[in-house]
Amino acid sequence: MSRLRELADLEPLAGRVVLVRVDYNVPLNPDGTVADDSRVRESCETIQALRGAGARVVLLSHFGRPKGVRRAEMSLRPVLPVLSKLLGEEVVFGADCVGDPAFAAIAAGAGVTLLENLRFHAGEERDDPDFARALAALGDSYVNDAFSVSHRAHASVHALAGLLPAAAGVALQREVNALEQVLGAPERPLAALVGGAKISTKIPVIENLLAKVDHLLIGGAMANTFLKAEGRPVGRSLVEDEHLETARRILAAAARKGIGIHLPSEVVVAPALDAGDEARTKSVEAVAEDDMILDFAPATVDAFLAVLAKAKSFVWNGPLGAFEHPPFDRGTVAFAKGVAGLTAEHGLLSVAGGGDTLAALNHAGVRGQLTHVSTAGGAFLEWLEGHTLPGIAVLLTDS
């Protein structure tokens, strides 16, 4: 059975230069400072483990989408003071990620070196073997600690891992273990909530989950398409009419498999997204022609949490309502707090991921109260779709 190669597989590390792929594609404040250092913090455990083993660490990351062109506003330099402070040591910055500037920075650094944006070179996103060889020349071993880019067959994620002794970092290992635990061999019953605005963006996720889950909760505006497919009134709510038949097919497949599909029974409606003061709670059957469904009401949240109260494992991707626009955040916040409570009090294995879900958990103040929260967006979604990620596959071993 295959397993991810770990840091221990690279030992001995003393005196070696280890290239570590991290994801420092972080948001910046208007003054150019780092606005959220979560991803930088997550990388520190691997960096410190390597330093503790006597290795010198060279960090590789992208920032933004410069498309192979050097752009000053997409430099990784703003990360440097944050990283130095978190590690408690001076981190040397390299003006480029390959060639003489990279070699010079590594030679000048006693412990940790951060090299400039990989995507300043077009070869990165092309998975160019020549660019990968230029990276490989900088070090002795390679570690991927960036699950969030592991769905990309880019040079620093894929080709480079085949050129040096390679392993997964601590954060990457933790991420994969959590996803395997909830989707590979979960303790049952297994429930999943899939939300979002459009069913079209989540069809592969739903189809893959139908082969794995015992209960599927449908959240977000995509629930409107399922409701209309069942002949329920949805008023002026966002609906993908072209996918009504898709929704019916999913509902029929779930029925054949004996999977419980859970849709809202009570919703919050308003004439428009900016008409929060006119929000009303209604049963689904009472939705009027001029209503827009913008959130799930307490009865629906309670029903969803009742499903989870009987579950052992839960995976979550997508909010319940338009949580970015209060008061239509109440359903998502109540649900998030309920999941956190079930995790703490009943041992629910709860794994959540995706950009909107992460934002919703932060908004509800419970991000740290679930079993595992992924900071990855596309990679998390592709894992839910059942894809093998290029950056993960290259680190697997049968030994």
Descriptive account of the structure:
This protein has 399 residues and is of the alpha/beta class. The protein folds into 2 domains: 3-173, Phosphoglycerate kinase, N-terminal domain (Rossmann fold, 3-Layer(aba) Sandwich); 186-384, Rossmann fold (3-Layer(aba) Sandwich), CATH 3.40.50. Helices cover 36% and strands 16% of the residues. It has a 6-stranded parallel β-sheet with strand order 4-5-3-2-6-7, sandwiched between helices. α13 (355-364) links the parallel β15 and β16 (372-373). α9 (222-229) crosses α10 (244-257). The longest helix is centred in the C-terminal third of the chain and has 17 residues, at 330-346. The chain is elongated and about 70 Å long. The termini are close together. The mean pLDDT is 95.
Short recap of the structure:
The protein has 399 residues and is α/β, with parallel strands linked by helices. The chain has helices spanning 38-52, 79-87, 99-108, 122-125, 129-136, 155-159, 170-184, 203-209, 222-229, 244-257, 298-309, 330-346, 355-364, 378-384, 390-393, and strands spanning 3-4, 17-21, 56-60, 92-94, 112-115, 141-144, 166-168, 190-194, 215-218, 260-262, 266-270, 280-283, 292-296, 313-317, 349-352, 372-373, 396-397.
Beta strand count: 17
CATH topology of the largest domain: Rossmann fold
Report strand order across the widest sheet: 4-5-3-2-6-7
Low-confidence stretches: none
| Average pLDDT for all residues | 95
The CATH architecture of the largest domain? 3-Layer(aba) Sandwich
Q: What's the CATH class label of the largest domain? A: Alpha Beta
Main beta sheet strand tally, sense and closure: 6 strands, parallel
* Name given to the CATH homologous superfamily of the largest domain: Phosphoglycerate kinase, N-terminal domain
